[in-house]
Amino acid sequence: MTAGGSTDLRRRLGAGLLEPEAAFNAPEFTFGFGAEEKVLAVDRHGDVFRPAAVLVPLIQHDDGVTVLLTQRHADLPDHGGQISFPGGRLEEGDDGAVGAALREAEEEVGLRPEDVTVIGALETRGTISNYRVTPIIGLAAPFYPVPQAEEVAEIFEVPLPFVLDPANHRFLERGSDGRSQATYAIPYGPWFIFGFTARILIRLGQVWRKGESAAAPPGM
User: Are 145 and 106 in contact (CB under 8 A)?
Assistant: First the structure.
């Protein structure tokens, strides 16, 4: 399997992705993991789960495609030290989920909205921090990233084929705080991609493989 040029990416991913605003405005979203996963109605739980969006930036280099990720500062009150995508909650004036994801990407890593080609979205999911997140998938050319000083400690890229490959996916039964909590992880060099970020990449891998289910533990 190769994740090569933009034509192949658009064809293989685009066929399985959702229209971004349809994903964001869906009446239901998924929350939980494995056997505890459930579908929640927005009209009943929308006040608890604040709307948010992240951008999954796929960077098209001459020698292959990478996915850009950030590591948050360890002392941040929310998700400190974690690996994440650029993103955050919707703010007044945002043009829906796409607008929020592109604004946050420019603020956090210096990726200009006009340099991103949005090709679709994944399903909206709830997080344990009470956000309802729509992942927006976008293509971009290589650029010089500038980390937001207040939030972003580091910016790095991982080869897209690596994160899409089920052989590199791990299932954990502990959370980042050491407590029992089922989650996914994708270790890569010094980086430990886990939780919601890993889940987005694993779901993207399922879309890449045209709906084939990734290897999952019992009860998934």
Answer: no
Across the chain, which distance is largest between two alpha carbons, in Å?
A: 47
Model confidence over 204-216: pLDDT tens digits? 999 998 755 444 4
Contacts of 2 (CB under 8 A, 6+ apart): 8, 64, 161
Assign 3-state DSSP to the chain and report helix, strand, coil percentages, each to 5: 25, 35, 35
End-to-end CA, the chain? 25
Q: Which CATH superfamily is domain 6-208 in?
A: Nucleoside Triphosphate Pyrophosphohydrolase (3.90.79.10)
* Alpha helices for 5-131 (secondary structure H): 6-14, 20-24, 42-45, 96-109
pTM passes above 0.70:
yes
